[in-house]
Amino acid sequence: VQLQAYGGGLVQAGGSLRLSCQASGRTFRSYDMGWFRQAPGKEREFVAAIRKNGLTYYSDSVKGRFTCSRDNAKNTVYLQMNSLKPEDTAFYYCAADTGTITSTLRYARAYDYWGQGTQVTVSS
Protein backbone atom coordinates (compact mmCIF):
# COMPACT_ATOMS: atom_id res chain seq x y z
CA VAL A 1 0.00 0.00 0.00
CA GLN A 2 1.33 3.41 -0.95
CA LEU A 3 0.01 6.59 0.61
CA GLN A 4 0.40 10.02 -0.95
CA ALA A 5 -0.46 13.00 1.23
CA TYR A 6 -0.82 16.49 -0.12
CA GLY A 7 -2.53 19.80 0.54
CA GLY A 8 -0.22 21.31 3.13
CA GLY A 9 1.03 24.84 2.96
CA LEU A 10 1.34 28.17 4.70
CA VAL A 11 -1.79 29.74 6.16
CA GLN A 12 -2.54 32.52 8.62
CA ALA A 13 -3.99 31.78 12.01
CA GLY A 14 -7.74 31.33 11.77
CA GLY A 15 -7.50 30.02 8.24
CA SER A 16 -8.26 26.62 6.77
CA LEU A 17 -6.54 23.87 4.85
CA ARG A 18 -7.67 20.51 3.57
CA LEU A 19 -5.22 17.66 3.50
CA SER A 20 -5.76 14.68 1.25
CA CYS A 21 -4.20 11.26 1.35
CA GLN A 22 -4.65 8.94 -1.58
CA ALA A 23 -3.98 5.24 -1.17
CA SER A 24 -3.08 2.64 -3.72
CA GLY A 25 -4.77 -0.72 -3.82
CA ARG A 26 -8.22 -2.05 -4.44
CA THR A 27 -9.23 -2.62 -0.84
CA PHE A 28 -9.04 0.91 0.53
CA ARG A 29 -12.59 0.62 1.86
CA SER A 30 -11.38 -2.07 4.25
CA TYR A 31 -8.65 0.11 5.80
CA ASP A 32 -8.87 2.19 8.93
CA MET A 33 -7.05 5.46 8.29
CA GLY A 34 -5.33 7.93 10.56
CA TRP A 35 -3.62 11.30 10.63
CA PHE A 36 -0.66 12.10 12.84
CA ARG A 37 1.59 15.13 13.08
CA GLN A 38 5.05 15.91 14.29
CA ALA A 39 6.43 19.33 15.09
CA PRO A 40 10.18 20.03 15.32
CA GLY A 41 11.58 18.77 18.58
CA LYS A 42 8.34 17.06 19.54
CA GLU A 43 7.07 13.53 19.38
CA ARG A 44 4.63 12.38 16.76
CA GLU A 45 1.08 12.79 17.98
CA PHE A 46 -2.31 11.49 16.98
CA VAL A 47 -4.61 13.95 15.23
CA ALA A 48 -7.60 12.09 13.82
CA ALA A 49 -8.72 8.74 12.48
CA ILE A 50 -11.58 7.21 10.57
CA ARG A 51 -12.64 3.61 10.57
CA LYS A 52 -13.80 1.68 7.55
CA ASN A 53 -17.36 2.15 8.78
CA GLY A 54 -16.91 5.93 8.97
CA LEU A 55 -16.54 6.25 12.73
CA THR A 56 -14.16 9.09 13.54
CA TYR A 57 -11.86 9.94 16.41
CA TYR A 58 -10.05 13.19 17.24
CA SER A 59 -7.44 14.40 19.64
CA ASP A 60 -8.67 16.89 22.20
CA SER A 61 -6.47 19.58 20.67
CA VAL A 62 -8.26 19.48 17.30
CA LYS A 63 -11.76 18.35 18.24
CA GLY A 64 -14.32 20.79 16.90
CA ARG A 65 -11.86 22.32 14.43
CA PHE A 66 -10.74 19.40 12.28
CA THR A 67 -12.90 16.93 10.38
CA CYS A 68 -11.72 13.61 9.02
CA SER A 69 -13.64 12.03 6.14
CA ARG A 70 -13.12 9.50 3.39
CA ASP A 71 -14.17 8.86 -0.18
CA ASN A 72 -13.79 5.17 -0.90
CA ALA A 73 -14.50 5.68 -4.60
CA LYS A 74 -11.39 7.86 -4.78
CA ASN A 75 -9.27 5.85 -2.33
CA THR A 76 -8.80 9.07 -0.42
CA VAL A 77 -9.02 10.24 3.16
CA TYR A 78 -9.30 13.92 3.99
CA LEU A 79 -8.49 16.14 6.93
CA GLN A 80 -10.34 19.42 6.85
CA MET A 81 -8.60 21.82 9.20
CA ASN A 82 -10.41 24.98 10.25
CA SER A 83 -9.59 27.72 12.75
CA LEU A 84 -5.94 26.85 12.47
CA LYS A 85 -3.56 27.93 15.21
CA PRO A 86 0.20 28.41 15.19
CA GLU A 87 0.49 25.33 17.41
CA ASP A 88 -0.97 23.26 14.57
CA THR A 89 2.27 23.81 12.67
CA ALA A 90 3.78 20.40 11.98
CA PHE A 91 4.49 17.76 9.41
CA TYR A 92 1.27 15.81 8.89
CA TYR A 93 1.30 12.14 8.06
CA CYS A 94 -1.45 9.80 6.97
CA ALA A 95 -1.37 6.14 7.84
CA ALA A 96 -3.30 3.00 7.04
CA ASP A 97 -4.26 0.11 9.26
CA THR A 98 -4.86 -2.74 6.85
CA GLY A 99 -5.19 -5.45 9.47
CA THR A 100 -8.30 -7.39 10.29
CA ILE A 101 -8.11 -6.88 14.04
CA THR A 102 -9.78 -3.75 15.40
CA SER A 103 -7.01 -1.58 16.78
CA THR A 104 -6.93 1.51 18.93
CA LEU A 105 -6.32 4.07 16.23
CA ARG A 106 -4.83 6.68 18.56
CA TYR A 107 -1.62 4.72 18.67
CA ALA A 108 0.92 4.76 15.87
CA ARG A 109 1.59 1.05 16.34
CA ALA A 110 -1.89 0.31 14.98
CA TYR A 111 -0.81 1.31 11.49
CA ASP A 112 1.27 -0.70 9.07
CA TYR A 113 1.65 1.82 6.23
CA TRP A 114 2.65 5.49 6.36
CA GLY A 115 2.69 8.27 3.82
CA GLN A 116 5.56 10.68 3.30
CA GLY A 117 3.83 13.60 4.98
CA THR A 118 3.01 17.16 4.11
CA GLN A 119 4.06 20.36 5.89
CA VAL A 120 1.48 22.64 7.47
CA THR A 121 2.67 26.02 8.71
CA VAL A 122 0.34 28.41 10.51
CA SER A 123 1.57 31.95 10.95
CA SER A 124 0.40 34.18 13.79
Our Rg estimate from Cα atoms comes to 13 Å
- Biggest beta sheet summary: 7 strands, mixed
Shape: globular
How many β-strands, per DSSP? Answer: 11
Poorly predicted sequence stretches spanning 5 or more consecutive residues: none
Primary descriptors:
single chain, mainly beta, 7-stranded mixed sheet
Structural commentary:
- This protein has 124 residues and is an all-beta fold.
- The chain is 0% helix and 48% strand.
- It has no helices and 11 strands.
- It has strands at 3-6, 9-12, 17-23, 32-38, 45-50, 56-58, 66-71, 76-81, 90-97, 113-114, 118-123.
- Strands 2, 4, 5, 6, 9, 10 and 11 form a 7-stranded mixed β-sheet that branches. A 4-stranded antiparallel β-sheet has the order 1-3-8-7, with no helix packed on it.
- A hairpin with a 5-residue loop joins strand 5 (45-50) and strand 6 (56-58).
- The relative contact order is 0.32.
